[in-house]
């Protein structure tokens, strides 16, 4: 169901589980920093609300969403993590650059996760305009950063128990 029909950040209907024993990296892009900063706040809220320890959350900042790929690989290469949360905001400009970034980031983040056998969560907004991004970074359609954190907890627990 699309975000325009509901607030996807309502998790009251699911059992998320405890993040107390999990280690995370959040890789966040600096492009559209006001948006990605709001996504980051949501991600921290989601992790801490479910018991994650602050000392178990590493933060890595990268220039743009395209660099989330390398940043996630670096995070997983250097330490034992249970999940990586990749946060970015790509907004359509005048050219097809948007298409290439979104396609690459979506495809390659999945490949990074498979390479390391660890969950890499796609918390990247890909919007037509700034307002759509604002609405999904703590606005009327919730916070995709918080959603990504909940997904990271769920997938991290699945990896630990399978
Ligand atoms: N236009 C946006 C970008 N562009 C920059 C790329 O992500 C990348 O840093 C550059 O191509 C160099 O490799 N990045 C975003 O995150 N959001 C945008 O709207
Ligand atoms: C997604 C982008 O890289 C884009 O915002 C850059 O804008 P433009 O396509 O007008 O160069």
List keywords for this structure.
binds the ligand CC(=O)[C@@H](O)COP(=O)(O)O; two-stranded antiparallel ribbon; Rossmann fold; EC 2.5.1.78; transferase; binds the ligand Nc1c(NC[C@H](O)[C@H](O)[C@H](O)CO)[nH]c(=O)[nH]c1=O; single chain; 6,7-dimethyl-8-ribityllumazine synthase activity; LS
Can you summarize this structure?
By secondary structure, the protein is α/β, with parallel strands linked by helices. The chain has helices at 33-49, 68-78, 97-116, 130-135, 144-161, and strands spanning 24-29, 57-62, 83-91, 120-127, 137-139, 142-143.
Describe the structure.
This protein is α/β, with parallel strands linked by helices and 162 residues long. The protein has a single domain, classed as Rossmann fold. Helices cover 44% and strands 21% of the residues. The protein has five helices and six strands. It has a four-stranded parallel β-sheet with strand order 2-1-3-4, with helices on both faces. A two-stranded antiparallel sheet has the order 5-6. Strand 3, helix 3 and strand 4 form a beta-alpha-beta unit. Helix 2 runs parallel beside helix 3. The model has no long low-confidence stretch (mean pLDDT 94). The site of the ligand Nc1c(NC[C@H](O)[C@H](O)[C@H](O)CO)[nH]c(=O)[nH]c1=O has 14 residues, from strand 3.
